[in-house]
Amino acid sequence: MAKADFEVPELKEYPEIPSITPGVMAHSRPFIAKPEHQEPLHFPGELVDNWQEKAIAKMGELQGKYRSLQVYLDSCVKCGACTDKCHYFLGTKDPKNMPVARQDLYRKVYRRYFTFAGKYFPKLVGAVDLTKEVLDDWYSYFHQCSQCRRCSVFCPYGIDTAEISMAAREVMDSIGVGQKYCNEIIGKVFRIGNNLGLPEPALADTLEGLEEDVEDETGVKVRYPLDEEGAEVLLITPSADFFAEPHVDGLIGYGKVFHQAGISWTLSSAASEAANFGMFIGSYENMRRVSLRIREAALDLGVKRIVFGECGHAWRVAYSFLNTLAGPFDFLDPRYPVPQHICEVTHDLIQRGALTLDKSANDDMVLTYHDSCNVARASRMGNKPGGQFSIPRDIIKASCNHFVDMAPDTIHDSTFCCGGGGGLLTDDLMEIRVKGAMPRMQALKQVVEENGVTHMAAICAICKSQFTKVLPYYGFSMDKIVSVHQLVSNAIVLGDKE
Amino acid sequence: MSVLTVVYAILFYAATALLLVGLGYRIYLFWKTPAPLKIPTTPAPTTRAGVVYRLGREVVFFESLFRSTKWTWLFGWIFHFGLLLVLLRHLRYFTDPVWTWVSLIQPFGKYAAFAMVAGLLGLWARRLFVDRVRYISAPSDHLILALLVAIGGSGIMMSFVTRTDIITVKEFFRGLMTFSWGSIPTLPADFFLLVHLLLVAALMAIFPYSKLLHGAGVFFSPTRNQVDNPRERRHLAPWAAQLENNGK
Q: Is the pTM above the cut of 0.90?
């Protein structure tokens, strides 16, 4: 078991709603962005002098730009439906990790400066001034939300805490209080093209190495092309796919699928990243700048389709926002949705009988599937609502003989976040990440014990990295987490169809 | 006309004005604020009709709340539908002649008041005894419950215990509604009537400035009212379009 300088939650036999313990996570704060992380994103380098005034003005601006924010600030009745739904609350017991309480950190300030009751009767409605203490609370607790939207599923008005935490982060960025992890990464995307800062030569080298590995293993020359003009498909995938485990096994799988289907494809060194951390910080402007790289790459390479690799929030931005941010995509082949998910492509090929899959290749595993939060609750696959649940499962079942779902209230749109989403996948937030993973670990433990599950598949780079790191804290081995296309990769029969 | 009658007449005109203006402005604000991104909580309907059906289930059955917590759902639903019946029953005091269907629901409407108050007490108990809900409650959350319980309670007292001269009360409100001030009778000086009316006026007045706005907010919630079709149709808010025109 991994060592921790904090208490790792105990996995109970059944999920339990804890009693509240105020303040236990107040100390959890990510590193603050330095000026060099802030400025490329057009944010002030450090806390501005008149920060209070600036922050309140920014709040007003955002209320005018986002209906979600205005409606959600006004509509909460404090019914408590969301209070036991957040994985961070369940894992930490800190009441400020209850979605409504997290929103209230923002709402209290909104009420103070923007509502009649809060201006004249602040105590009555719980309105507070925006003081340094309140700002500290914001920084702490708005970086304990992974924007997974589980609360919004259960709210009678659909109030989405993600919208509030995005707004809060944008307000903080606008006064010079940014989060180092997210902002540094967005800067790298602008400067180099991907989150990990892999330059083109390193990328080309990695892909060449992959081709050799796959050829050694299978005897088939599967290609992993980079910057090939005129390819049919531009594949946009999270940069973790280029080297991290188990991500890279997924990338190998995509290549084999394209190879076997005879679809020409390419990666782009300019847009070598699917992730868009602009969403995490709630910055439309930065999210758009990151998205436009994809449009430019598609135009430069003259491709006909855009396909996204396995990445959860990236798929949210791609599916739900890309057309808005970087559309219209009228220069692409109109017969395909823009963009497509790699699972949609593979699923379609399986349906049409274009792939031969030998399920027995995965017989050493009993699998379960973790629905990644942003795929489950903020996107779709295929033509029908819920395709985001059935399509990845269909692919797994077509590739493996042994599949078991976890408890019904922990999958599909009730899925629990891995604990590392929303810009929290950084070592300076290890405690909240481990504690936030507890509900998923609990559900996993149940199927491990009852059904002999050996591996959990996922289609999100953050989930894969997060689980690799946190599984050992709960006594599981880190390689329990696998990519969905890793399973396809194992099962796919390369070469001529018989 | 007594001073009391004049005070209550002014009170109800003022409360009505605050309700209409305040709510009208808030709805206008919700309406004109753009939703720049597609954020329906998925799985979401892919057609307009599907969205109407989704919102309908939400408003009539409190579907999401049902999935979330059965006790809050039960108390909340009983309260809201009790209140609805009670409100519909009250139409008899504002219409002349009374519509047939209003007469027909009269017996149910009278007893619905008990359901309404029972629901409220259940919700209040949760607020007091569940530590998570107690933690998030501000004084105003308790006060609004107290207000509604007092309105229900004073109404029940008039319906079942000490009746007031309801015919005169109706004439009072008909007079206010038709602006025929000359014909407004003196309001009966009954304790429960005066309390009931005062609190109702207070409820009307605070509606647009409090969490009671959820009644309007639910229809404007982008996670519930958006169609899931971002790939098929480009969704662009005016300010985002402007950013595009200036940027590039």
A: yes
